[in-house]
Each structure stands twice: as structure tokens, then as C-alpha cells.
Amino acid sequence: QVQLMESGGGSVQAGESLKLSCLASGYSSRKNCVGWFRQAPGREREGLVLIDIVDVPAYADSVKGRFTFSRDNAKNILYLQMNSLKLEDTAMYYCVARDDPYCGTWAPSQYNYWGQGTQVTVSS
Question: pLDDT tens, 87-120?
Fold first, then answer.
């Protein structure tokens, strides 16, 4: 059974940093497409970063240069380092995965597995 469990969210001020973690169990993140999405109140889910077996992360323009994906393959943990946080980064953040070695799409409906989410709130 695949389980994704996020942690590390919280409340910070604009300009500060947070690092999110996602523990993936029952699933090999090295052999499949994984990534991070977020959803702000009243908005659609937004893909932030995806990575597949090519092992080169693809970032959304909204977070490029501020957010960095990494992972610990031995522990099967995915990370999202978020720097220079802005008010508009306030959202629920989700770790995602799909049963495909390649990503190829940012459509949320194409991702089979979602964690429960971790809330990030950025204030001024």
C-alpha cells in the first residue's frame, strides 16, 4: 500500500524559509515520477516541481530559483526546500506520485497518489 506523509509545514514571515519532507512508503520514488503540488484557498491545485527517472527536476515558474527539490533515496524521503517565501506561497502542500517512470504532465488528475498535505502560511 502506497502512503505519502508530508511534514514540516508551519507559519513563517515573508522572506523566511521552510523545508518540507515527504516519507514515501510502499513506493519507490527512484523508479517513478514524484513531486510536489500545492493548493491555496479558492484556487486550483498547482504543480511546483516534478522529477522522474531522468532525475532532473522540473520547476514551475512561480517557484523556480526559490524552491529546491531533493531526496534521500536510502530513506525514501522527498524534500522541498522553500526560500524567500512570499505571501502568495500560503497554501496546503502535497507530495504526489504516479505509477509511471516519467512525469510528462502537470495535470493533478494524472497523479495516483497524494499525501494528506501540510499547511504553509506566510505572513507579512
Answer: 999 999 999 999 999 999 999 999 999 999 999 9
Cα–chain center distance at 66: 13
Q: Which of 72, 71, 66 is nearest to 18 (CA)?
A: 66
Q: Are 60 and 122 in contact (CB under 8 A)?
A: no
Name the one residue in this structure whose C-alpha cell is 530559483.
Answer: 65
Strands 3-7 and 91-98: unpaired
Report residue 111 as a C-alpha cell: 497523479
Judge whether 35 and 96 are in contact, CB under 8 Å: yes
Bridge partners of residue 90, in order along the sequence:
none
